[in-house]
Write a structure and sequence with these properties.
single chain, 186 residues, mainly alpha, two-stranded antiparallel sheet, 32% helix, globular
Length: 186
């Protein structure tokens, strides 16, 4: 079978985006950045919730996020919204993005703010007005310890988002406490 884009490689596994003989070969869009095999490994979130969760947080996504954030692989940024950008642009077109805060020292170490890079492709204004007052890892905390996130998150330059429709984004949601604390600051 003739490959119309023989050099276009999957950002995750580095195989050709058109690697398999399945129907996915015929439905790959020019904007796709991952192959069908890796796309199938990003499992859609199966439950309904108040907001919108794109993927199930499993080992594949955990490792992918570690490679992106922990190892500073900025090239992976478009992977997380692959195939969903146009839908998300339409759905949230009148909004501004406010990312949940990261630890500033980690942003400086990796050289980028991961949520800003993940959501840049939506072409919406991004206002990182939330910050962490001090380093805090919620994943290492007990349920009671996780509630401390309410004291960790602060806001600066709130005037930038006053009277705006906000799309609050984060990379992982487990208990929802970080998003609740962020929402309370907005």
């Amino acid at each position: 079978m003739h490959d119309p884009h023989p050099t276009k490689k999957c950002l995750i596994c580095r195989s050709s985006i058109y690697q398999d003989d399945s129907i996915s070969y015929f439905v790959v869009r020019d904007t796709d950045v991952i192959c069908g095999k890796c796309r199938r490994l990003l499992k859609p979130y199966p439950y309904s919730c108040r907001g919108e969760i794109l993927y199930l947080y499993d080992d594949f996504l955990r490792n992918l996020l570690f490679q992106f954030k922990g190892q500073g692989d900025l090239a992976l940024a478009p992977v997380f919204l692959n195939g969903q950008v146009e839908r998300l642009k339409r759905r949230y077109r009148q909004m501004i993005i406010v990312p949940a805060p990261s630890v500033e020292s980690e942003n400086q170490e990796r050289g980028f703010v991961h949520l800003v890079e993940m959501f840049r492709s939506l072409d919406l204004p991004i206002y990182p007005v939330l910050y962490k007052k001090y380093p805090y890892k919620q994943a290492t905390q007990s349920w009671q310890g996780r509630q401390a996130v309410w004291d960790v998150i602060g806001i600066h330059d709130a005037w930038l988002i006053k009277d705006k429709r906000i799309l609050l984004v984060d990379d992982v949601m487990t208990s929802g406490m970080t998003l609740e604390a962020c929402e309370a600051r907005l």
